[in-house]
Write a structure and sequence with these properties.
Helix content is about 30%, strand content about 25%. By secondary structure, it is of the alpha/beta class. Helix 2 links the parallel strand 2 and strand 3.
């Protein structure tokens, strides 16, 4: 069921401000065939609601909200299982990709 070349998975817990920069850095990549999956690990800072709003505006963004905080490793695994890309790239919610970090070769 591969639909994308690359799936970028971002686990996030209470990183409302930082995660926006992280996902913007993913969605601004030149690579045309990617999806970004943000796994909200039961944040209590309004991240889930904010991310749902952004997902409605951006086709390449999917948000998965966990009901209970499971930790970064578990959130990464949930995102990896949901990925529809041939390749999976993990990005921390307080990190950013540089332009050209994901490109076809």
């Amino acid at each position: 069921m591969e639909q994308y070349g690359v799936s970028v998975v971002i686990p996030s817990y209470n990183r409302r401000e930082a995660v926006v920069r992280a996902l913007d850095s993913v969605l601004s990549q030149d690579y045309p065939n990617l999806e970004c999956i943000v796994v909200d690990d039961a944040s209590i800072d309004g991240s889930g609601e904010m991310l749902r709003g952004l997902a409605g505006e951006r086709e390449a963004l999917r948000v998965i909200e966990l009901e209970q905080n499971a930790g970064q490793g578990a959130a990464r695994n949930v995102g990896a299982r949901a990925a529809r890309g041939r390749w999976v790239c993990f990005l921390d919610s307080d990190d950013e990709l540089l332009p050209g970090s994901i490109e076809s070769r």
